[in-house]
Specification:
Elements lengths: L13 E5 L2 E5 L6 E2 L4 E10 L2 E7 L8 E2 L2 E3 L6 H13 L1 E12 L6 E13 L7 E7 L15 H13 L1 H4 L5
Parallel strand pairs: 4-9
Antiparallel strand pairs: 1-2, 2-3, 4-5, 4-7, 5-6, 5-10, 8-9
This protein binds zinc ion.
Length: about 170
């Protein structure tokens, strides 16, 4: 864990054991820098009986097919973020159907909230974070090998993608 300067008073933070966990604390003012996973909203979208995936442009898992996803921002709810990410990354307006899952892991600094949804407008087009959009019929998803040299986040995200797309890979659809 790298120490930083206190956001409250500018003193150099030290790592202290607080509530039996290592945390950065400011020796001058006592401020504790809690670290929390950042929430990510994910949309598992059905469009005309097909699953919508984007090919990721950036790490983690660059070049892998994945559901559209992105950070939840202050000023929006998680469902609103799911709808926004779908619009930005694949050009589709969506209606949320149900929560698909909440995914987190101790050594990963994001937390994914995934919803199943269906399109209600727009047409599939790749946005900023995607190099292409793909539509896949049930049972016809592209096989993707687990990353061999990746980070913990890469391996975890690969598992999350497998889990949220499991009904589609099995051929039963969303
Ligand atoms: Zn301080």
């Amino acid at each position: 864990m790298t120490t930083r300067h206190c956001s409250q008073c500018g003193s150099r933070m030290v790592v202290a054991s607080i509530a039996e966990r290592p945390r950065e604390q400011c020796p001058a003012c006592g401020f504790i820098a809690y670290r929390n996973p950042a929430p990510v909203a994910m949309a598992v979208i059905e469009h005309e009986q097909q699953l919508v995936l984007i090919r990721r442009r950036d790490p983690p898992l660059a070049n892998y097919w994945a559901p559209p996803a992105g950070y939840v921002e202050t000023g929006e709810s998680v469902p609103e973020a799911v709808i926004r990410e779908a619009r930005e990354e694949c050009g589709l307006e969506i209606v949320l159907d149900e929560l698909a899952g909440v995914y987190s892991q101790a050594d990963v600094d994001v937390l994914i909230v995934a919803y199943r949804a269906h399109s209600s407008g727009g047409r599939p087009v790749a946005g900023d974070d995607a190099s292409e959009v793909g539509l896949f019929s049930p049972g016809q998803l592209p096989p993707q090998k687990a990353p061999v040299a990746g980070t913990a986040t890469d391996r975890w995200l690969h598992q999350v993608i497998l889990d949220v797309t499991a009904p589609w890979r099995a051929g039963t659809g969303g």
